[in-house]
């Protein structure tokens, strides 16, 4: 039995190595974020996630992976699950394998998920099965598909259905079908999909969910106009939003008492006991500001909700919720911090903050709001935690993360990129949009620092044992203050075009800086002069730095795992064995000298980092395609790859429909490591829209595809 952990992080790498002994082990695994649910006649629950399919036979307490259909290490997002009267399970997948995108499509299992067969290659958003066991699939590019023979054959049934992108499909007790679109209204079929009629629903927003009560009243959840109700099969519609505090409704479900539950994008779950006339929140036990991706209700009226990377259950109509899974599953783990009790805190990309008290094996979500990406964490001498966020400045917790308050008095920025704390508990925050700030009263008030940056921005603060403050910037090198930030000296003009990613100090107060193009630079005189220290590094994009008590230095070159130096940076060796994701974005070491690394997974060193008994192979032994960086991106991103022998290489970019949009590499390459830049606004690529794209590395013997996001 295998449990899948899904999440992303920040601190980079670029090379695969082979080791005599693994350095890392993966911990904190989970099933990933639930996208959809289905429940069979035995009350077994199936969860479709961004890590495949999982099954629970004990009301959600434990989950088993059911992913024999996966033919590679690349998991599809399971967008839909439906179960027929014979308990045959059908799943729809949308995150795609190598072109021609054979990973997406419809799969069927006739043995409770143990084995799967692929039925077709369409990109599926939703599934529903009528009383005649006809299966209907809403697709991303082919409208509605129908099968009348248990999924063996499929035909398009789109007469009168003009949009090709179907967001959701549902049926009422009379087997009338309703198809919701991405901004083009809602359509109805009364003859099993042979013909469709457009209904006059007054919204141009995406239709995310359709459900019915016992009287066949139709309820529709939209992305911006709340909930609509029709009592006459869709002929007429009224908005029913009284009591809702958000207009973005992602899922709807109705229980045996005709109570309606609405899962929202940013305000948790709401309930109505009177057909939507009034709504009230039912969020006791849920993280604040929860984004709910999926709802399901079993025959015992138990409600299951997929929120972030967790699954919650309520047995009392939503009055209270029990968390069933404790994963850590942000899109990225941007930050790691460890308190005096060796509890680990992880800041993620729009999945909040997680805490582990057992070295990363189990996690609890202690701060959640889908509006905030947590880019930085710092802990003072009182174990108060400070979180820098992407949209709402700085938050503080004084009770180990149980409660958080926003502390922005005098803090005029919104994007708090990095937080650092000196020995006197003075707090320094670098921002993206409005300079840098200092607080001397635990965050109660803030003063803007007068760093002579012109139009540049501070990316990182570092503070040595003398409380000298060093400020790394985007393009202006490094500044130093010896008087708590009152005045600043520009240390070097030779780094004006280099971004400073990270700053760290050894026990002698020697400074190490990770940069965007000069690798590791090093100073022994408080920054007056600098020397490059790059012998053995995979590349010169060094995003993360960490130093243990033995003064061993650890860095994460872009998409190359983790490298270590035991001789003050004079030479570096890779210590990446055991990593299954090389896009390491954050590092931290605890008082027992164990190191933790965040990427798409959470890793822990098998032994204390003071051990140097591992060996490595500096030469590539496998093909390797890295995750692009940055991701999301606009307009440019870098793709690193590695080939173990001389061969012809292509790298192509595709949109979500499988159409080629760019050819990045198309030539013979020698064995080695390479990088290529993708620019969404230049060359043969013009004005790509925001969305999901795929890039594929292909040789005669190897093919690998990864997903990237263009976000304008």
Summarize the topology:
Elements: E1 24-27, E2 34-39, E3 45-49, E4 52-56, E5 64-65, E6 78-83, E7 89-93, E8 105-109, E9 117-120, E10 124-129, E11 135-139, E12 144-147, E13 155-156, E14 166-171, E15 177-181, E16 186-189, E17 197-199, E18 207-212, E19 218-222, E20 227-230, E21 238-239, E22 249-254, E23 260-264, E24 269-272, E25 280-281, E26 292-297, E27 303-307, E28 310-314, E29 322-323, E30 333-338, E31 344-348, E32 353-356, E33 364-367, E34 374-379, E35 385-389, E36 394-397, E37 405-406, E38 416-421, E39 427-431, E40 436-439, E41 447-448, E42 458-463, E43 469-473, E44 478-481, E45 489-490, E46 500-505, E47 511-515, E48 520-523, E49 531-532, E50 542-547, E51 553-557, E52 563-565, E53 573-574, E54 586-589, E55 595-598, E56 602-605, E57 624-625, E58 636-643, E59 647-655, E60 660-669, E61 672-679, E62 691-698, E63 703-710
Antiparallel strand pairs: 1-56, 2-3, 3-4, 4-5, 6-7, 7-8, 8-9, 10-11, 11-12, 12-13, 14-15, 15-16, 16-17, 18-19, 19-20, 20-21, 22-23, 23-24, 24-25, 26-27, 27-28, 28-29, 30-31, 31-32, 32-33, 34-35, 35-36, 36-37, 38-39, 39-40, 40-41, 42-43, 43-44, 44-45, 46-47, 47-48, 48-49, 50-51, 51-52, 52-53, ...
């Amino acid at each position: 039995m295998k449990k899948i952990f899904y999440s992303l992080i920040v601190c980079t790498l670029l090379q695969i190595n082979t080791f005599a002994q693994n350095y890392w082990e993966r911990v904190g695994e989970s099933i990933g974020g639930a996208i959809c649910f289905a429940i069979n006649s035995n009350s077994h629950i199936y969860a479709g996630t961004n890590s495949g399919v999982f099954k629970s036979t004990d009301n959600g307490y434990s989950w088993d992976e059911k992913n024999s259909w996966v033919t590679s290490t690349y998991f599809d997002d399971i967008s839909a699950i439906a179960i027929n009267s014979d308990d045959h399970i059908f799943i729809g997948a949308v995150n795609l394998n190598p072109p021609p995108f054979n990973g997406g499509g419809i799969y069927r299992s006739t043995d409770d998920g143990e084995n799967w067969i692929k039925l077709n290659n369409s990109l599926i958003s939703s599934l529903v099965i009528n009383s005649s066991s006809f299966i209907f699939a809403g697709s991303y590019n082919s409208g509605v598909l129908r099968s009348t023979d248990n999924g063996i054959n499929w035909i398009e049934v789109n007469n009168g259905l003009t949009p090709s992108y179907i967001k959701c499909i549902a049926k009422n007790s009379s087997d009338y079908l309703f198809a919701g679109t991405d901004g083009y209204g809602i359509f109805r079929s009364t003859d099993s999909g042979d013909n469709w009629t457009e209904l006059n629903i007054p919204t141009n927003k995406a239709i995310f969910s359709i459900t019915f009560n016992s009287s066949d009243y139709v309820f529709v959840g939209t992305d911006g106009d709340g909930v609509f109700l029709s009592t006459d099969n869709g002929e007429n519609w009224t908005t029913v939003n009284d009591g809702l505090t958000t207009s973005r409704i992602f899922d709807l479900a109705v229980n045996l008492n005709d109570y309606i539950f609405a899962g929202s994008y940013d305000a948790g779950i709401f309930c109505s006991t009177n057909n939507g006339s009034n709504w009230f929140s039912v969020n006791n036990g849920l993280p604040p500001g929860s984004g709910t991706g999926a709802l399901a209700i079993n025959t015992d009226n138990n409600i299951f909700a997929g929120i972030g990377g967790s699954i919650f259950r309520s047995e009392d109509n939503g009055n209270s919720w029990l968390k069933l899974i404790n994963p850590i599953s942000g899109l990225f783990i941007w930050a790691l911090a460890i308190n005096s009790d060796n509890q680990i805190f992880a800041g993620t990309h729009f999945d909040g903050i997680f805490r582990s008290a057992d070295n990363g094996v189990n996690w609890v979500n202690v701060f959640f709001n889908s509006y905030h990406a947590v880019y930085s964490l710092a802990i003072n001498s009182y174990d108060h935690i400070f979180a820098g966020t992407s949209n709402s400045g700085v938050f503080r917790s004084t009770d180990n993360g149980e409660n958080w308050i926003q502390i922005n008095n005098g803090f005029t920025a919104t994007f708090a990129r990095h937080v650092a704390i000196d020995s006197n508990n003075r707090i320094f925050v670098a921002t993206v949009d409005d300079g840098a700030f200092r607080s001397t009263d635990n965050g109660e008030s803030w003063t803007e620092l007068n760093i002579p940056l012109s139009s540049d921005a501070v990316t990182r603060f570092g503070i040595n044992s003398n409380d000298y403050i060093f400020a790394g910037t985007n393009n202006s090198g490094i500044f130093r203050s010896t008087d708590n930030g009152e005045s600043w000296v520009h240390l070097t003009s030779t780094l004006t075009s280099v971004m400073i990613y990270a700053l760290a100090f050894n026990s002698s107060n020697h400074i190490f800086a990770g940069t965007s193009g000069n690798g590791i630079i090093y100073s022994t005189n408080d920054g007056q002069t600098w020397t490059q220290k790059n012998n053995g590094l995979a590349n010169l994009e060094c995003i993360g730095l960490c130093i243990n008590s033995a003064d061993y230095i650890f860095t994460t070159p872009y998409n190359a795992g983790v490298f270590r130096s035991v001789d003050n940076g004079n030479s570096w060796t890779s210590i990446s064995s055991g990593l299954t994701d090389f896009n390491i974005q954050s590092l931290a070491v605890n008082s027992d000298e164990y190191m933790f690394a965040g990427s798409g997974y959470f890793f822990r060193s098998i032994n204390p980092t003071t051990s140097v008994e591992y060996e490595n192979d500096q030469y590539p032994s496998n093909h390797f395609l890295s995750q692009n960086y940055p991701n999301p991106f606009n307009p440019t991103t870098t793709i690193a790859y590695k080939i173990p022998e001389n061969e012809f290489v292509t790298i192509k970019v595709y949109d979500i429909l499988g159409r080629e949009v760019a050819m990045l590499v198309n030539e013979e390459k020698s064995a080695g490591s390479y990088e290529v830049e993708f620019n969404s606004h230049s060359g043969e690529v013009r004005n790509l829209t925001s969305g999901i794209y795929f890039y594929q590395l292909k040789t005669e013997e190897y093919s690998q595809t990864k997903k990237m996001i263009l976000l304008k």
